[in-house]
Amino acid sequence: MAEQVSQQRQPSAEAGASQPKSFRRWAWEWLKSIGVALVIWFVLRALLVEAFRIPSSSMERTLLVGDFLFVNKALYGAEVPFIHTRLPAFREPQLGDIVVFDSKTQANVKVVKRVVGVPGDTLEMRDNVLYRNFAPLPEGYTQHVDSTSDPADPEMRTWQLEYLLPSVDRDTYHPTRGTWGPIVVPTGQYFVMGDNRDNSYDSRYWGFVDRRVIRGRPLFVYYSFDHDSWKALPFVTAIRWGRIGTRPH
C-alpha cells in the first residue's frame, strides 16, 4: 500500500516542477513578441512614418487645428538615428509640397508649411500676390483673414537685405507681410509659407529652410476633431469624420 501511495503522488510532484518551466517559457515568448514589436515600431517611426499634430492655424484652410497626420519620412530621405546619416531620397522637395521640418526658431519643434520657392527661384510679393520668377503663382489654397493693416516689419528686412536683387534700393527697402522682395533662393534652401497668409510665421520673417532639416511630407489625416468646440470632451464629441483619411494637397 505504501508503495502504491508513493507512486500515486509522484506525477503530482512532476507537474508542480513543470509549471515554473511553462511560466518561464510563456514569459520569454511574451517578452520576445514585445521586443520585436518595439523594434518594428522604432524602425517605422525613425525611417518611414511618424505621427504629427497640427497645433496652429497657419495652414488653414488646408490643415486645421486638431488634425493628426501621418508623415512620410522616406520620401525626402529619412535620417538614421544616432549616426545622423540620411538615407537616399526618392525625390527632392518640389514647388507646392507641404513639408514638415525642424523649426528654425524653437529647439525640438517641428513645423509644417508649403514650399513656394525652390533653389534658384526669384520670389516677390506685391499686395498679397506671390510672384515666382516674375510671374504670379496660382494659389487657390490660400486664405487672407486680415488685410486691413500691413505695417513694415524690421525682422523681415534684417535677413532679406542679403538676398535682394541688385536693382533693389536697400536704403528705401521696408518689407511688409504682403509686399516684399524680389529675393533669390540660394542653393540648398527652400522658401516656405503658411496657406493662412495673414496668420503664419514663416520664411518671410525668419528666412529659408535648409534642405537638411526637411523631414517629410504629410500622407493623410488619420484623426481630427474641432479643438474650439463648445461640447464637452471635444476629442470624442466633436470629431471631424469627413476629414479622416483625407490627403493634404
Which helices and strands occur, and which strands form pairs?
Layout: H1 2-48, E1 49-53, E2 67-72, E3 79-80, E4 85-86, E5 98-102, E6 110-117, E7 122-126, E8 129-132, E9 135-136, H2 154-160, E10 180-184, E11 189-193, H3 203-206, E12 209-210, E13 214-224, H4 234-237
Antiparallel strand pairs: 1-2, 2-13, 3-4, 5-6, 5-13, 6-11, 7-8, 7-10, 8-9, 11-12
Please name the CATH topology of the largest domain.
Umud Fragment, subunit A
Structural class: alpha+beta
CATH architecture of the largest domain: Ribbon
What is the total domain count?
2
Uncertain stretches = 1-8
* Biggest beta-sheet profile: 7 strands, antiparallel
How many individual helices? 4
What shape does the CA trace take?
Answer: elongated
Fourth-tier CATH superfamily name of the largest domain? Umud Fragment, subunit A
Per DSSP E runs of 2 or more residues, the count of β-strands stands at: 13
Mean pLDDT: 88
Rg over CA atoms, rounded to whole Å, is: 28 Å
How much helix, percentage-wise, in residues?
A: 10-25%
